[in-house]
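Hi F.,

I've been meaning to write this up properly since the lab meeting, where we talked about keeping a consistent format for the predictions we share between groups. The idea is simple: the sequence comes first, exactly as it goes in, then the structure tokens exactly as they come out, then a line or two of notes. No screenshots and no reformatting. I'm using this chain as the first example so we have something concrete to point to.
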Amino acid sequence: MPNDNIFPVGITYITASLKKAGHLVDGIIYSNYDILVEKLRNNYDFVATGGLSAEYIKLKYISNIAQQANTKIIMGGGIITSEPELMSKALNVDYSIIGEGEETIIELITCIEKNENLSNVKGICYFDKGDLKITEKRSQIEDLDSIPWPDYDAFNFSKRLESMKPTDQYYYDIFDYPREYPLVASRSCPFLCTFCFHPAGNRYILQTGANCAF
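Output, unedited:
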């Protein structure tokens, strides 16, 4: 459930991983409070979302709507990873994911479904009898080729691509074509600037097996 202004490719990697694991997924781009309320009447088992600190208000709205629908909410992204305890409590989520989420969310949902011990799932926060528990840190994903390609279909990206204008891009262009779509070809950054925070971890990992034809 991402922001509608800039297409958030991160959540598409999460939905792709969920689908690969056999879960049914609906992608909803948050653009209207009432529309989201209506969508969540479909009795979902979980609402999964995330973002940066700039999206706090919208993430809070989503959390509130999920609670009204009696749906468990899973939240990740930089806003959680930077301050797991503070943001998990402020956003009132059921489960938080620290760091990369592709592997973690699968293990978390499997653990919940089997009613197993959540403390065995690395890289999460959860509430146990009112107390917030933070599990062992999860290592970065070493092989980015091991995770599925992003799931654009869940968010009807083809429609967005068809209506895309030159001014919708990060860089202005006088031409309508070629239109672009986002991919994540690396994680973290090769530098460790003191003013910067790396939600995925401090090790720079580059995807090596991507072959793209246009």
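Notes:
The radius of gyration is 18 Å.
The mean pLDDT is 86.

If this format works for you, I'll send the rest the same way.

G.
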